[in-house]
Amino acid sequence: MSLQFVVDGLLAGSMIGLGAIGVTLTYSILRFSNFAHGDFMAWGTYATLAVVGAIGAMFGKIAPIAPLSFGWPLIVALILGVALTGLLALLLDFVLFARLRAKGQAIIVVMASFGASMALRSLLEFVFTSRPTYFSRAIQIAMPVGFGIRITPDQIALLLLTSVLVLGVHLLMTRTQTGRSMQALSQNAALARIVGIDVASVVRFTWIIGGALACIAGVMIGILIQIRPFMGFDMLLPMFAAAILGGIGSVPGAVLGGLIIGLAEAGAVQLIGAEWRAAVSFIILMAVLFVRPIGLFGVRER
Amino acid sequence: MDLLGYGAFFLTTALIFSLVTLGLNLQWGLTGLFNVGLAGFVAIGAYTSALLTTPDDAARLGGFGLPILIGWLGAMIVGGVAAALTGIATLRLKSDYLAITTFGVAVIVQLVALNAQKLTGGPFGIGFIPRPFGSLAETPLLFNLSNLAVVSAVTLIAYLALEHLSRSPWGRVLKALREDERAAISLGKSARFYRVQAFAVGGAIMALAGALQAHFTGFIAPDNYLPILTFQVWVMLIVGGSGSNLGAVVGSILVWAIWVGSGTLTSVLFPPEQQARAASLQIVAIGVMLCIILLLRPNGLFGDRPLHVRFGKQAKVVAGESSPGS
Amino acid sequence: MSEAVVEVRDLEAGYEPGVPIVRGASITVGKGEIVVVLGPNGAGKSSLIKAIAGLVPITGGTVLLDGKDITAAPAHTMVRLGLAFVPQTENIFPLMSVEDNLKVACGIIERREIPARIEEMYAAFPDLVRQRRTTAGNLSGGQRQMLAVARALIVHPKVLVLDEPSAGLSPKFVAMVFEMLAGIRKSGVTILLVEQNAKAALAIGDRAYVLVEGKDRHEGIASELWNDPVVAELYLGQRSRRTGGAA
């Protein structure tokens, strides 16, 4: 078995982990599993793609930053894409989720997210068709780094970006007043209001963070694999499995869960074949539910 | 006469959907169990029955050439067992875990259908599934009407049985558990067993519907069981009103009519090369419709659930959410 | 009685429209006072102060804080307005450290001032200093109550409102909690509390109200109320009738 699966697994795990942070935060703070989270990913990616296209139309062809496959337009577009995805999440909450939350039946919100997911994804298919597309068609040369492992400059850059983001989110959650407010809200919503936390603003912040990370994870998939309307939907099961494996509400747990699932997937692809990749998340999910449903870092079932 | 034949064909499909919706109504409407992977259970039924009843095929396992009724029975057993296992895994936890797991079941069933060629025929699916009135296929009208008769009979039996069940003490326990998930979890094993039973019976009904559909069309492929199927059935139940078996049947026929009608409309309005795109717009419209019904008329046409959860109950749930050791 | 810090007039409140739990209660808390609300089980004591704190919907009447109408103010704005509430149970964030429990309540305090405020609370509650890194869920009952009170006081409220601070505590801790409240009053904080433990509460209180069926039925000087026959009738009579099976 080649050790290449470590790099592949870490990359897949990064994408799953970044997405799972959003899932776990939405679950612990808004108390519902958001089935539209994967579609935030796809929408963010297509938004970024559209901005890249617009920049290309305005400034002509721009050389990539060697040795990466992309140049500054993608970086600028990603920042805009992140903002747009955050806005999309806020908008969906405003027109749909917030109204249903006010009625107090959490599972209705889950169902609405399922409906929204279907609508969002199909809207992407309508606008961009279901044909896969790419940020860049250039083929990158993977450099050997020993032990039979090869890695491309893009992959290195994205692994670094993930580390920075994960560290950033962790510090945000533990060291800032906003982060503490989010923790407080997830532990006891009534008490959070009593101590002066404006629940509405924390909820908004949660959506923005979740949407932003989903967009970045989606763009990573776009850079390394391809862009499709179903790209986010296909990530849903791994993301949920990662969030549950890590322990709902735990940011480090979601990331670790993502990495474990990513590595397991990459290992399974080598051993059994790529077509069974999606089964890995399900098997891990079932194992967690039977053995330790609170997950690795979970505190207790709520 | 052509129109009559088409009407029979339409109604047969709609009633098969009704059967799935009835299964979902037992799970969700009556018991409050959230199943977002019902396409998986329908597929399990279709493949099981196909496997049992098709003539022997060297390219894959089986078929065993058994009678159709055995195929249907087998479909219900396998579908019920799969649902029971899903329930056992998740019903001691919060409802979201069931949702995520059923979602996973659908993904896995799809994966097996696509990749386990020896079992399922892979992407090309299984053909030559015996049809109950295959000998009548030469006179389409008679064939369609006899299919409709069979499907109507099965749906009617399921409907009456479910009506009876929901009025029985068993059904009342389920309703009580639905109203208070917290109690349902804390009541422990006995309550969980009730819920597993409901989920399994619901799964068996869905599987039976899958089997009916397979024998009605004579051919199945993984594409028939995509998430869109789950989604359609949910819209049918919500439109009809969750909790009501009558609503499940009426909602299914109504939504299927809207679906077919809007499909016909797009095929008339859009040029052939744009058909695929137009079809996605159709899904958008139905998705938006689901959300609007949830917002404006959560009870659907015949639903029995309280329109608004009482404020006090809600406040208590929020406050009680973090109670230690719960 | 000096000027009123809290003035509640004809308050009606309840979770469901048309089913008020508080039915026309009026109470006044003067500056620097400890006011106790007593009453039989189910009298609506807890709902009364939760309504004041913005946690139970108010359907009629007014609540004034320092003369300002706060009847419609959302719960999360109460600390900014000067009212800090300590719920009866679940009054700490169990998965956060003691220090984070204090910090999370500092949203309205200027960032530079926060460390000093936290030290101030540690000085007032030395037991908490040793536990500052402990996860709050692991504290003993008495320490939890202390943390909850410290968390409320850290914003320097005009009035501290407590819902049965002695509930569920062992007798040793009960004494400690009431001693603590007496100490807090000495530092100039006005206190409004609901209590089941009438004797201990009246011992430290200035004035008291007896609430029956959602309405204030009797008012008096705390030290005199314990022997007041009207109170015995309202309070104990009600209780004995209750045990007799009436809903």
Short characterization:
The complex is a heterotrimer of chains A (302), B (326) and C (247). Chain B is 73% helix and 0% strand.
Write up this protein:
Chain A is mainly alpha-helical and 302 residues long. Chain A has one domain: ABC transporter involved in vitamin B12 uptake, BtuC. Helices cover 72% and strands 1% of the residues of chain A. Chain A contains 11 helices and 2 strands, in the order H-H-H-H-E-E-H-H-H-H-H-H-H. The longest helix of chain A has 32 residues, at 72-103. Chain A is globular, with a radius of gyration of 19 Å. The N and C termini of chain A lie far apart (41 Å). Chain B is mainly alpha-helical and 326 residues long. Chain B has a domain at 2-226. Chain B has 13 helices and no strands. In chain B, helix 2 runs parallel beside helix 4 and helix 2 (38-53) crosses helix 9 (189-217). Residues 306-326 of chain B have low confidence and may be disordered. Chain C has a single domain (4-243), classed as 3-Layer(aba) Sandwich (Rossmann fold), CATH 3.40.50. Chain C has helices at residues 45-52, 78-81, 98-103, 114-124, 126-129, 141-153, 171-186, 198-204, 222-225, 229-243; strands at 4-13, 22-30, 34-38, 58-65, 68-69, 83-86, 159-163, 190-194, 207-212, 215-221. In chain C, strand 9 (207-212) and strand 10 form a beta hairpin. Chain C is globular, with a radius of gyration of 18 Å. Residues 239-247 of chain C have low confidence and may be disordered. Chains in contact: A-B, A-C, B-C. Chains B and C meet through helix 13 of B and loops of C. Chain A: Belongs to the binding-protein-dependent transport system permease family. LivHM subfamily. Chain A: This is Branched-chain amino acid ABC transporter permease. Chain A: The chain crosses the membrane at residues 6-28, 40-60, 72-95, 107-128, 156-173, 205-225, 237-264, 276-299. Chain A: One of its GO terms (molecular function) is L-valine transmembrane transporter activity.
